[in-house]
Design a protein that fits this description.
Elements lengths: L13 E3 L10 E6 L10 H14 L7 E5 L3 H13 L2 E7 L4 H9 L3 E5 L4 H14 L4 E2 L7 H17 L6 E5 L4 H13 L4 E7 L27 E5 L1 H15 L5 H16 L4 E6 L14
Parallel strand pairs: 2-10, 3-4, 3-6, 4-5, 7-8, 7-10, 8-9
Antiparallel strand pairs: 1-2
Helix pairs in contact: 1-2, 1-5, 2-3, 5-6, 7-8
Protein name: Cysteine synthase
GO molecular function, one term: cysteine synthase activity
Pathway: Amino-acid biosynthesis; L-cysteine biosynthesis; L-cysteine from L-serine: step 2/2
Amino acid sequence: MYKYLEDFVGESPLVRLKRLPADRGNVVLVKLEGNNPAGSVKDRPALSMIRRAEARGDIRPGDTLIEPTSGNTGIALAMAAAMMGYRMILVMPENSSAERVQTMRAYGAEVVLTPAARSMPGSIDLARQMQADGQGVILDQFGNPDNPQAHYEGTGPEIWRDTGGRITHFVSSMGTTGTIMGVSRYLKEQNPAIQIVGVQPQPGSQIPGIRRWEDEYLPKICDFTRIDRLVLVNQAQAEETARRLAREEGILAGPSSGGALAVALQLDAELENAVIVSIVCDRGDRYLSTGLFA
């Protein structure tokens, strides 16, 4: 049977690392979400949010959708909107990488840039104002339960199946928190002893895809009780680990993936006989203009 593009969202590879882990009897695995059609873990919630909103009758093809984004969700939504017949307006900080902006526009989305000094809160505020002015409907990745539900139904079960239920630690960078919320819920239902480790940036670090939110903007889908341990990483750690992942394992990924893997490797140095899974959120080719791999 022939398949449509949306049928290839999910079922990303779970790959064992060879050279980066220490020799302590642990298994360190990375889930390659860059293999999704639009190149990131955000393909899952993007498709989920549009499909479920359609099913509820909240939107229908031809409508205009608006979303504030730092990049990957915007690219995924632009792809999904193109597939499903929506006009897409994406609002994002002006210091986002050129590859991200160009990719969104290639999918036919309109991109509205906001001042870099205001970061994501500035983009969120403008998107809300645009919706209030009747310019479109916000899907709201930060407060929409259809975001973590995609990971509860897809990412979590895939990890459990592909590790044969042997996973002991799950590590994920925290942005919108949809991935860690959905995967945590599923894995804890299978085995409450599995440790869920969230990764956030140290103060002053600017790591695309990893964020510590001001209380006013904390995603509504975030529930810190679903996280067993929070670890802070700095920008240098995240970027250097991303470079090592490319040079020593042949996996080209972005800095948020480097941040999560840095924490996974810390766990690897502390533990014995563990099965550690870290999310590789996206592909590194959308960061080439930033100098990450220079």
